[in-house]
Write a structure and sequence with these properties.
Chain B: This is Lactose-binding protein. The complex is a heterotrimer of chains A (about 300), B (about 450) and C (about 230). With about 300 residues, chain A is an all-alpha fold. Chain A contains 14 helices and two strands. Chain A folds into two domains: about 50 residues, no CATH class; about 230 residues, MetI-like (MetI-like fold), CATH 1.10.3720.10. Helices cover about 75% and strands about 0% of the residues of chain A. In chain A, strands 1-2 form a two-stranded antiparallel ribbon. Chain B is an alpha/beta fold. In chain B, about 45% of the residues lie in helices and about 10% in strands. Chain B contains 17 helices and twelve strands. In chain B, strand 4 and strand 5 form a beta hairpin. Classes of the chains: A mainly alpha (about 300), B alpha/beta (about 450), C mainly alpha (about 230). Chains B and C meet through helix 1, helix 2, strand 2 and helix 3 of B and helix 2, helix 4, helix 5, helix 8 and helix 10 of C.
């Protein structure tokens, strides 16, 4: 070891040149495999999908139509419904979930808390539950004579059972509750693991200065976790824009398309109706464009430069 | 020094990983690849038999039927059948992905397709399916099965199970409301609604359970008159569709008068009658085993013909569900077609055991004269349920389901929501028509 | 009701489907996927952050694009690709576990995740490692990897879970019963005119346990303040 560290004693200029060269060259080696893999398994199919979006027709009978599919989007009421629904989910659900996940992770990070492992697992469990079970449970809870209605009736909050799954507005609420239930624990993991990388001494110093735990949360935890908060909000945005499982399994897009998401519409165009893969690819690219715009905004807001 | 060490370490990791991947995947694909070859490519096994694969769903029904067919097969070509089980939606996805990718790799020789989806597959992938009309006689099968399974005069599907519907009802509840079996035979849907009102008033039970996201009941009503959402040439037929209009009026009347128990999924639908909540189940005959699953209600059920819409030419018979077998245009197609023709296509005895062992009612007409069809079912008070269903089956009005049933229904169900909350029926149908025309031109 | 018929449900489950094979396949896929995902993803996430240059930032942003397309849109070209691979090398073609694994191990998601966590990694440690004469890969394996244990634990949970529950791609690319995975098996169980809900729920419990156990074991690494002590 001492032999090698001798080379670090060269003049400063040399070492800077050396590190800069190394930084570039070695860095590329670290990322090479990923660039190749993503190129092959994602970008190559993505280019194909884009070419497909310039065609239209049923199944294998595709014809080149240029950008007609993109024009068709604007006059397609089902697409517009699915877009509106997806944005409602996004605006309501993502902030609520991120805040809840942060709250739980800070709470469950307390080393003095007993049965931490149990509580963490309990909150994480919804994320691993099989979709089939998840759907059955939600339909049961939110059915007309389900537990939720019984509870609300019992507390005298409502007079007649609410149609959670067959009322257009309430069905959206049900979907939002379902997504939040399933994915809060998932996001909690990212925060929990990141919290371990926050230097404990910062909290001690703050405590000595007399900062309350709420102040510590806002002035230490949140700034320290900023990279991860950015990560989870982008990932959740993408996840919600591609929302499919919950809608498919709990409401099947109904009642009357009122819970239909963009991804579910893509599924319907490809598999449920007579397939039009060209138009389905076009709708997919709408998601790509939306995510690019939203992620750009999120990166900007988070000030990624630091 | 550290430099060298970590390089070795790195090499070791790479070597280890390569070994792991190769071991895991190689070991597996030795089994896997032989199947893939045999399956999609119709290869032959060591003893000279042609290997064919079949995709189907439902282990207790379609898969069991395939197994039975495999046992009773006695054709000239030696066949080794591999059955691959997948859920119906999964098969639809796999088939669409495979066929549209242009590679036939991994595709099966035989596949089961629901009748209402068949046209969309046949027309979307023109060269993917193999015409099998030469392997059986189409006249042996219920007429209503032929339009969905054929295209341009060529027969592609071998008709399998019937979705012939029945009006299953609780004898005790209906009696309490003042109705005998004869009062329920050959009625109209308008009468059905009136009976439902009586039942609700006298027994407190809702007449039937419905999932508001599933418009199956409208299709059942419509088909009694031989009409559909589209006409034979594919024109969208909503705005001037008199049967649909009447069906929707009945639907609204049932909903408005609280005669329906609303459910949100299949398990709740089953529970609605197994728990004794609802008084009747108007549905495809395949619902019978689920009714019979509740042993405590033995002898309390009976079945009457499906109500018809009150119109010229309507029949007291309709259909819900049902599928047929298709052969893909890949190596092994002749063997696959021969297998189907020899079993599902012509063997009346096979249909008897299909009924007794699996409980599946086929659409092969000569089979209904067989002994198994005469069985008197104690659960339904000794009624010859199967025989009656097979008679109704022959009367089901023919309908061309076309390509857009599910697409139109999604549009329609959004409009029906508004109809139930007060929008006029004319506007509902006109708006649905306009939307559907825009989407499926 | 669950509980009373558990034994009967288990018996029916094992009698009707080959859950052993499906469990085995899911385990093989999930373990290989988790291991490779973590290795490749963390190498890249580290590379992008520690050796940050304008060019690499650009590449990183482009890679992120791959997260944004719905998988359903690239599934058909991907299937065609593996169909072509099949004719060249059946060992990694359609209907092999390798084909189910390959497109899932290199994802922008984990590169992004590791990069964001690397931002919280004390970069002085890299300099310290260089002064001690470690190679760049040596620094990664000997300093970064042990320091970021909790990040790896979180990534392992997510990667295992994603792989264990992955549905769409295995569904289309795996055909023979020998290659079936757990989510496909459960989907089949619910697919009849008369589904047996007792058996389905029993299968679901069995299917949920492995991820829950992985989570429970991994979350023990999330202990506040551990990080400070691993300074190299």
């Amino acid at each position: 070891m001492s032999q090698v560290s001798g080379s670090a004693n060269n003049t400063k200029r040399q070492s800077t040149f050396f590190t800069r060269f190394k930084k570039n060259y070695i860095g590329w080696i670290f990322i090479l495999l990923s660039v190749l893999g993503i190129g092959l398994f994602y970008f190559y199919p993505m280019v194909q999908a884009f070419l497909l979006s310039l065609k239209s027709g049923m199944g294998a009978n595709l014809e080149y139509v240029g950008f007609d599919n993109y024009a068709r989007l604007f006059g397609d009421p089902t697409f517009i419904t699915s877009l509106t629904n997806t944005f409602i989910y996004l605006l309501v659900q993502v902030p609520v979930m991120i805040i809840l996940a942060l709250f739980f992770s800070v709470l469950l990070n307390d080393p003095k808390l007993k049965f931490r492992g149990f509580f963490r697992t309990a909150i994480f469990l919804p994320a691993v539950t099989s979709l089939v079970a998840y759907a059955v449970i939600f339909k049961y809870l939110f059915g007309n004579d389900g537990l939720v209605n019984e509870l609300l009736l019992g507390m005298n909050l409502i007079d007649t059972p609410l149609n959670w799954l067959s009322d257009p507005f309430l069905a959206k609420i049900t979907i939002i509750i379902a997504i939040t239930w399933r994915w809060t624990g998932y996001n909690m993991i990212f925060y929990l693991s990141a919290l371990q990388n926050v230097d404990k001494s910062m909290y001690e110093a703050a405590r000595i200065d007399g900062a309350s735990s709420i102040q510590q949360f806002f002035f230490i935890t949140i700034p320290m976790l900023k990279p991860i908060i950015l990560f989870t909000s982008i990932v959740s945005t993408i996840g919600t824009l591609q929302l499919f499982d919950e809608v498919m399994n709990i409401t099947n897009g109904g009642p009357g398309n009122s819970t239909l998401s963009i991804s579910m519409y893509i599924y319907n165009l490809s598999f449920e109706y007579t397939p039009d893969f060209g138009y389905a690819a076009t709708v997919s690219y709408v998601i790509v464009i939306l995510v690019v715009i939203l992620s750009f905004i999120q990166f900007r807001v988070a000030g990624d430069r630091d | 020094m550290g430099n060298k060490l970590s390089k070795k370490f790195w090499l070791l990791i790479v070597a280890l990983l390569t070994a792991m991947v190769l071991a895991a995947c190689g070991g597996d694909s030795e089994e896997g690849s032989s199947d893939a070859d045999g399956g999609g490519d119709g290869g032959t096994t060591d003893d000279g038999a042609t290997k064919i694969t079949a995709w189907a769903w439902d282990p207790n029904f379609n898969i069991a039927a395939l197994n039975l067919a495999n046992e009773s097969y006695n054709g000239e070509t030696e066949i080794e059948l591999e059955i691959i089980e997948n859920a119906q939606d999964d098969i639809v996805q796999k088939l669409n992905t495979g066929l549209s990718s242009g590679t036939m790799k991994g595709m099966p020789n035989i596949v089961l397709i629901e009748d209402q989806r068949a046209q969309s597959f046949l027309q979307s992938y023109p060269d993917a399916f193999y015409p099998i009309g030469d392997y059986f006689n189409t006249e042996d099968f219920a007429e209503y099965k032929i339009p969905p399974t054929s295209l341009d005069g060529k027969q592609y599907g071998l008709p399998f199970d019937t979705g012939a519907t029945g009006f299953f009802y609780r004898t005790d509840y209906l009696e309490e409301a003042g109705y005998t079996h004869d009062d329920l035979v050959d009625i109209t849907w308008a009468q059905f609604v009136d009976i439902a009102k009586d039942v609700k008033e006298k027994t407190g039970h809702p007449m039937l359970a419905l999932d508001p996201n599933d418009l199956g009941i409208l299709r059942v009503m419509m088909q009694t008159t031989g009409t559909w959402y589209t006409t034979e040439d594919g024109t969208i037929n909503l705005v001037d569709n008199e049967p649909l209009k009447v069906a929707l009026q009945h639907y609204k009347e049932l909903m408005d008068n609280d005669l329906v128990k609303l459910v949100s999924d299949w398990s709740q639908y089953l529970a609605a009658f197994n728990s004794g909540d609802v008084a009747s189940v108007p549905a495809g005959n395949w619902i019978a085993p689920s009714i019979e699953a509740e042993e405590s209600q033995k002898g309390l059920w009976a079945v009457a013909p499906t109500p018809r819409l009150d119109m010229e030419g309507a029949a007291n018979a309709s259909n819900q569900g049902g599928s047929s077998w298709y052969v893909l245009n890949i190596d092994g197609k002749e063997a696959a077609a021969e297998f189907l023709g020899n079993t599902f296509g012509s063997n009346s005895d096979f249909y008897q055991s299909l009924l007794t062992d699996v409980g599946a009612i086929g659409t092969y007409k000569p089979a209904s004269e067989g002994e198994a069809y005469q069985y008197e079912n104690e659960y339904f008070g000794g009624q010859q349920v199967i025989y009656e269903i097979s008679q109704w089956m022959e009367e089901i009005p023919q309908v061309d389901y076309g390509m857009n049933t599910y697409g139109i229904e999604d549009i329609l169900s959004a409009e029906i929501q508004q109809y139930l909350s007060g929008k006029s029926l004319e506007d509902v149908l006109a708006d649905a028509q306009a939307q559907a025309e825009a989407q499926f031109k | 009701m669950p509980g009373t018929h558990l034994v009967e449900n288990l018996k029916n489950l094992f009698a009707t489907v080959d859950i052993g094979t499906a469990l085995m396949n899911s385990f093989i896929i999930a373990i290989i996927t988790t291991f490779l995902t973590l290795l490749i993803g963390s190498l890249a996430g580290y590379g992008f952050e520690i050796y940050r240059t304008k060019g690499k930032d650009m590449v990183f942003n482009i890679l992120l694009l791959s997260m944004m397309i719905p998988f359903a849109a690239i599934m058909i070209p991907l299937y065609r690709f593996f169909g072509q691979v099949s004719s060249v090398s059946p060992l990694i073609g359609i209907d092999t576990l390798a084909a189910a694994i390959l497109p899932t191990i290199i994802t922008a998601f984990f590169i992004f995740f590791f990069r964001q966590n690397t931002k919280m990694f004390a970069k002085e440690l890299v300099e310290a490692g260089r002064i001690d004469g470690l190679s760049e890969l040596g620094i990664f394996f000997r300093i970064y990897l042990p320091t970021m244990k909790t990040t790896y634990a979180a990534a392992a949970i997510i990667a295992f879970m994603n792989s264990w529950n992955n549905y769409l791609w295995p569904l289309v690319v795996l055909q023979s019963p020998e290659n079936q995975t757990i989510p496909l098996l459960i989907s089949n169980l619910g697919a009849g005119y008369t589904p047996d809900y007792g058996v389905i729920m029993t299968a679901i419990v069995i299917a949920t346990l492995p991820t829950a156990i992985v989570f429970f074991l991994m979350q023990r690494h999330f202990v506040a303040g551990m990080m400070g002590s691993v300074k190299g």
